[in-house]
Amino acid sequence: MIDRRLLLSACVSSVLAACGGSAGGGAQPPGIVFVDPPVTARVSGPLTTDAACALLPRAGDLYPNAKVEPQVAVNPGNPANLVGAWQQNRWSGGGAQAVVAAASFDGGQTWTRSTAPFSICTGGAAVNGGDFERATDPWVTIAPDGAVYWMALTVTGGAAFTTGSASAMRVARSPDGGRTWERPITLIRDGATAFNDKNTITADPTDARFVYAVWDRLQGATWGPTWFARTTDGGASWEPARVLYDGGSTVQTLGNVIAVPPNGTLVNVFSRITTQSNNALSAEVTVVRSVDKGVNWSAPIKIADNLAGGARDPDPGGLAIRDGSLLPQVAAAPNGDLYVVWQDGRFVSGVDGIAFARSTDGGLTWSAPVQINAVPNVQAFTPQVSVLTDGTIGVTYFDLRSNTPDLNTLPAEQWLTRSRDGGNTWRETRVAGPFDLAIAPNARGLFLGDYQGLAATGSRFVSFFAQTTRAPVPNPSDVYALAVTPVAQAQAAAGTSRAYRAQPAGAPPTDAMRARASTNIVRVLERRVPGWSDRMRSSPSR
Fold first, then answer.
1. Cα end-to-end distance, the chain, whole Å
2. In 409-529, beta strands by DSSP E
3. Which of 260, 279, 308, 385 is 20 to 30 A away from residue 2, measured at CA?
């Protein structure tokens, strides 16, 4: 089998003609035409880094021009103003040289890029406490008064818990819709004794003074409480970071994200990961609630087991795909209903699909998970959810339905599926692709991001996503913004979209599903902390 990484390196270092026109090198497989989105939809572009960036130590293999892990927010007071962010120049060993932002003031048609001094590569060395070599996990939110908040994880040194390593959660504020940024504020910084990871930030849609930051903080091999910080004065100051949820020495959390329905209740959704006495691992999609702006939090409420097994190239010898399998996503509807989506392997044995659950009582109780991806027997992964003002639910995800026997390519597509009846029936439309996932950066798995972006603006969904690209010069990946509702309407009129019903799981989870899920959890944790398995086995709590 051809080593796709070597093939990509050869293409990047030569002219396009030398590699052929296709993303995987050589002729495209019969019946597959790889499709780049329109140039006008491309948001990302070149990045000029500070001179000090070239002097920093390597963190594995560098993928120049790789733009991954995008996320986007819409201004609730001005739906034409969107702000997105992503990683750029990704390292295989973790993080990127920079995180980059872009703002649009015309509903996503045109964008202006900007940076903030999160890392040394974008001016961080000049900022007090800003000596961070890499940045990652960008997340943006916009308050009702139009202030934009951009949060990122910044890291320096080697892998987590190694001598000289450090991690911090930092937030930058923009008073002008994402055009420019104030200097980032550090919410927490740890050295080699703890590792902060997987942050999100949510502006309270009911009160512009309140913004909530949440993340997990791994304090041992198997112990990782959820941490929380908030501002109550519109970003002028932040309260000290503190524990939001602690499940004990054998429990860690991952993928914390807060939604705020119209009644102002905070609902934090996350995966609760437990290490059993036999070293097997299990995960549950869980929520905790606060009715007092984050001062106090409820006991955990289980939505469902998380049985994701992780996506991978199904061809013989194919690489794993680094996906969003332990990162549930949540959205609040205008009527107060809550919708959670996640990647799950309970529906078809050995195949991950997209699970959906609904709460009509503010997160106290939840419906049983149902499968909402249209083709159930192919791998679907990395879902994101949003809701229009009329209550239409939108979920984007990638899947591999167009894969072929060609070992040198991995055709993938992004899809939008929409429901107007609370999640019972759905209609899907292709957003982008097919594109060749095989040329994505390899960050312990083919990597376009642990999450993607989806915004609801007016009557449209705007997908903010990364995909591999081919022209004019091969890039590992670019970030695009596409308003998908007009596309969906056109495809529906042409009869090229399809309607279907959500499907419940056919039977209770099997031992094989749980074993596959346990193996995936280990893989995910090894990606964030190399050598995690060895640390877990030698942990005193074991």
1. 41
2. 411-419, 425-436, 446-447, 453-457, 460-467, 478-483, 498-501, 503-504
3. 308
Amino acid at 371: Q
Q: Which residues contact 250 (CB under 8 A, 6 or more apart)?
A: 222, 223, 274, 275, 276, 541
Handedness of CA 368, 369, 370, 372 (dihedral sign): positive
Candidates 62, 192, 221; CA nearest to 134 is 62
Q: Which pLDDT tens digit goes with each residue over 403-435? A: 999 998 999 999 999 999 999 999 999 999 999
Chain centre distance of CA 137:
8
Closest by CA position to 250, among listed 270, 291, 228, 278: 278
Interval 53-111: pLDDT, tens: 999 999 999 999 999 999 999 999 999 999 999 999 999 999 999 999 999 999 999 99
Is the Cα dihedral 52, 53, 55, 56 positive or negative?
positive
DSSP secondary structure, 494-535, as one string: HT-SEEEE-EE-SSPPPHHHHHHHHHHHHHHHHHHSTTHHHH
| Share in percent of the chain as helix, strand, coil (round to 5) | 10, 40, 45
CA distance 220 to 540: 9
H or E element in which residue 96 lies: strand 96-104
- Tens of pLDDT along 332-342? 999 999 999 99
Give the E-state strand segments of 109-184 in sequence order.
112-114, 134-142, 148-156, 166-174
CA angle 121-325-540, nearest 5°? 85
Q: How many CA atoms lie within 13 A of 532 on its CB side?
A: 24
The one-letter amino acid code at 365 reads: T
Q: How many whole angstroms separate alpha carbon 28 and alpha carbon 25?
A: 8
208's tokens: 């512009």
Strands 498-501 and 503-504: unpaired
Structure tokens at 419: 């429901």
Q: For the chain, how many helices (H) and strands (E)?
A: 4, 31
CB 413 within 8 A of CB 402: yes
pLDDT for 304 equals 98
Residues 6+ apart with CB under 8 A from 6: none
Q: Find the length of the chain.
A: 542
Q: What integer pLDDT is reported at residue 496 of this predicted model?
A: 59
Compute how many other C-beta atoms are within 10 angstroms of the C-beta atom of residue 378.
Answer: 18
Q: How many Cβ atoms sit within 10 Å of the Cβ of residue 316?
A: 8
Instruction: Tell me whether residue 170 is exposed, middle or buried, using C-beta atoms within 10 angstroms of its C-beta: 0 to 12, 13 to 18, 19 or more.
Output: buried
Give strand pairing partners of 343.
354
